[in-house]
Write a structure and sequence with these properties.
2 copies of one chain form a homodimer.
Chain A lengths: L19 H5 L3 H7 L7 E4 L6 E7 L4 E7 L2 E2 L3 E5 L4 H15 L7 E5 L4 E5 L5 E2 H7 L6 H15 L7 H11 L4 H12 L15 H8 L2 H15 L4 E2 L9 E3 L4 E3 L7 E2 L3 H16 L6 H32 L19 H28 L5 H4 L4 H20 L7 H13 L4
Antiparallel strand pairs in A: 1-2, 2-3, 3-7, 4-5, 6-7, 8-10, 9-12, 10-11
Helix pairs in contact in A: 5-11, 7-9, 10-11, 10-12, 10-14, 11-12, 11-15, 12-14, 14-15
Chain lengths: 425, 425
């Protein structure tokens, strides 16, 4: 699928609505799926994200999505350069996800390395999950699908499953993606906890923010988690599994945009996904009222429960059926008449605790650092927004400081309900 | 220092005593240090290790050591091939160690990549520490030097100190050294705990071995530590820091042979070094008697105490003076008027616990797996050997199962003394 043209032969040039048909019109993998004369293709640029160009290309046969990296951070501008090679890693991540958790990531049809672009499946009528959660729409099997996706990619990308030389080679490959982990490291783990330059937060939230930033034990715990994140290669992560990286219909759930993919701790994607469900939960009082509010918030908590439950169930199933790597080998357990089930439970327990702590960190950075969530950000009444964000920030702090108290899902749910009732502002 | 010849131009050929002078006689970095006519160089092959060719080359000006990898495991033969590139990583490790912990690793004068050889400082009158420990010789500042070496390499090879892009690039480089971690992973972490093909142990030790291998919780703990080892890139390890990788005079301590170097947990080298001191301790009753035995064993325990104490002291010093990486940044602590000392203590506590567990694993593999220690192996009375090995194996088990009980050095010392008095065989 990688084309053979040398980087020198094909200098990078950003696509535009006007040049796309000419430049991709003779690429069979694209033209055959779009259909008709390239000159008559309907081309829309829809990149509402922070970093890239995204085009939807439609012809007589169908539609595809063309995604191309820009050499800078789109939401900031050319003053923040970002290497094009991140698109290569996004492509590598997509093909690995397709193998490890089939039918969740969009299918990739074509990859052009020098142009830092790839062409993939157009998901329709899917919309971004975050918008659905703000609108109060439900998605069947949402928690189950995300929990299962996290378990499958975590397990099958690790040395519980992969041959070690293959996994280590892949760690070497992904270690080339230096610029992307650097963003996660500072924006997620460090910036929220001091007055970093690009931070912003709702003005009325300041008392809560100031107190949070004085919590030395919290900062130390977060830095220890950063150390685990940055020096851990357990598995290939999605790396940015928030509700803007999930597209859904009422019944189908897909995961997109793994450009922050890196090797990291098994718990990370799970924790980040749950954090985004919790932020949807805490923001709901600004988006709907009364009974509708209560039942929709209850549904979000069910999604969180399903997410954890299905992660554990799928991980246990893979542990029984696909444990072919060097870790916890059958030669030491089953082949000696010993069960390895307790070892699986102990590992899942560790993953749960780490996931809760990473969850707390994500809950912080989305209201304190550079990239905020629309769930809160679209609340125009800043006093109300701050009140809801405070619940979220304080629950995040509790999860980082004492994940053990929320280890069992019912306790986590109760904790969320308690913070949802409690106002410090 | 890397020479410019292409790999194709210079096909690998193993050196011999007869060809060495011809092949290295015109290399300035070698010839100038050895001195005199290459034809008159005195050349001895002294590789008593498991893997490589090692020559001492002496001329009118001095001596150098030439080390060349063989394309197979020397102690097993051509039936166990092993890639030559491991010599490149040994070279990379030596130059990094020279920078991070000066004057401990031998100085490297010349590196020939295609020939998988390098030329380095001849350490004289140093001898292998293991031989000294078997003979009952003391080395001044042994524990202090090893503890300090472990702390310096651990801290300065991590993102507590290094710029993240540099460290991540280095992780990518070292991830190419696939064959070497694979050996550590199986020989150290897995083979000891079941009847792996290449294992051997003292026959009289069998009852202890059988019981150990039935301990499912132990095996699960060790595999969890393997998972941490194999998916952790905290720092660049020596990777094989046993008493055969240490050379010493009465007053000088040097560390050699980092060919098992890889990125891994900060606690690993420290744990392995202490394990080898403990094995020296437990083997002493076979090597000397009465008062001499008691005072020499007491000295070894002092070495262990100094090793841990100086590791902590040096790590704390570097934490205060060289914490320039992305982890626990001053912007979050000192610059906010917060001390980061507690965070350092908490990290050192974690390192200590992991070091004790890795220590226990090394104590096991050296009597149960392929590569045994001369400390025990040279005890001809196998009943006595098994009795001493049993003490070592059982203390190792205690350290893996409950490192917390030996967290404070005095408790660790008492534990060693208790196992030294206790016989199960």
């Amino acid at each position: 699928m990688e084309n053979g043209q040398s980087e020198a032969a094909l200098r990078y040039e950003a696509l535009t609505v006007d040049t796309l048909a000419t430049r991709l019109g003779d690429v069979h993998e694209v033209a055959s799926r779009v259909g008709g004369e390239p000159a008559s293709w309907e081309i829309r640029e829809v990149g509402d994200g922070n970093l890239n160009l995204v085009f939807i290309v439609t012809g007589t046969a169908g539609s595809v999505v063309v995604k191309q990296a820009l050499p800078y951070v789109r939401m900031v501008g050319e003053s923040w350069p970002l290497p094009l090679y991140r698109a290569h890693f996004e492509y590598y991540a997509l093909v690995r996800q397709a193998k490890r958790a089939p039918n969740i990531a969009p299918e990739v049809f074509y990859f052009d390395k020098p142009q830092a672009l790839f062409v993939m499946e157009y998901l329709y009528p899917h919309t971004i999950l975050r918008r659905k959660l703000i609108k109060g729409e439900r998605v069947a099997h949402l928690g189950e699908t995300i929990g299962q996706f996290c378990a499958r990619t975590a397990f099958r990308g690790s040395e519980l499953s992969l041959p070690s030389p293959e996994k280590k080679q892949d760690v070497g490959l992904f270690s080339g993606n230096v610029a992307i982990p650097a963003i996660t490291e500072s924006l997620v783990f460090t910036d929220p906890y001091y007055g970093a330059e690009m931070n912003h937060h709702t003005p009325e939230l300041s008392p809560v923010v100031d107190e949070l930033r004085r919590n030395v034990r919290l900062k130390a715990k977060v830095q220890r988690l950063l150390m685990k994140f940055t020096a851990n290669t357990e598995t290939m992560l999605h790396g940015d599994l928030h509700s803007g990286s999930i597209m859904a219909t009422d019944t189908d759930v897909r995961v997109i945009d793994p450009e922050f993919s890196q090797y990291g701790p098994m718990a990370f994607d799970l924790g980040m996904a749950v954090a985004n469900f919790l932020m949807a939960y805490f923001s709901q009082p600004a988006h709907r009222k009364d009974n509708v509010l209560a039942t929709y918030q209850a549904w979000i908590l069910e999604v969180i429960e399903a997410c954890f439950t299905s992660f554990d169930a799928e991980f246990r199933y893979l542990w029984q059926t696909e444990r072919t790597g060097i870790l916890f080998p059958r030669a030491l357990f089953e082949e000696q008449g010993n069960s390895a089930d307790d070892a699986c439970d102990a590992l899942l327990d560790e993953i749960r605790l780490d996931a809760l702590a990473y969850c707390g960190i994500e809950m912080h950075r989305r209201v304190l650092s550079l990239a905020h969530n629309a769930d809160f950000e679209e609340i125009e009444d800043t006093a109300l927004r701050a009140r809801l964000e405070a619940r979220n920030v304080l629950m995040g702090q509790a999860l980082i400081m004492n994940p053990d108290a929320a280890r069992e899902v019912p306790a986590l749910i109760e904790l969320a309900q308690a913070y949802n009732r409690q106002d410090v502002l």
